[in-house]
Amino acid sequence: MCNKKPKHKWLKVISGSARELAYQINERFDLDWEDETSIKHRIFWPVVCFLHDSVALPIDGLYSTINGTYWNFDADRPFTIREYLTLFLWHRPARAMKEFVIYTIFRRERIDEHLGCPSWPDCDEAPMGCIVERGLENVEWYGARD
Ligand SMILES: [Zn+2]
Fold this sequence. Notes:
Helix content is about 55%, strand content about 5%. It contains 4 helices and 2 strands; from the N terminus they run H-H-E-E-H-H.
């Protein structure tokens, strides 16, 4: 993988633009300083999160998958594109739906269910080390083995 030229660099361009746009919106509307209950925050914060979490990160992951650098620790080889798409097109929306029902409809208090994850706080970037994503049985305990 060292000497191979990366394929499909345009994916990086798209994810970079999405990230940049999220950043611009955040800056433009001072969202970091804005009261979370304000209209401005409630309108733009989900947009920023969507651009970052649902556009930039998955596209980065796809780019890494295509270039064989997104590692599947279970299989000890890179993710296949099919595996990757299953992860993002099925598992994540299913989880998002569950969270929407629990936290938005039933208004449960949100606790960080990722706190015990070996990947914490980068579960998005290293889902194999995420208990929520993989389950306690299958999670990859990297960083935790001595
Ligand atoms: Zn996690």
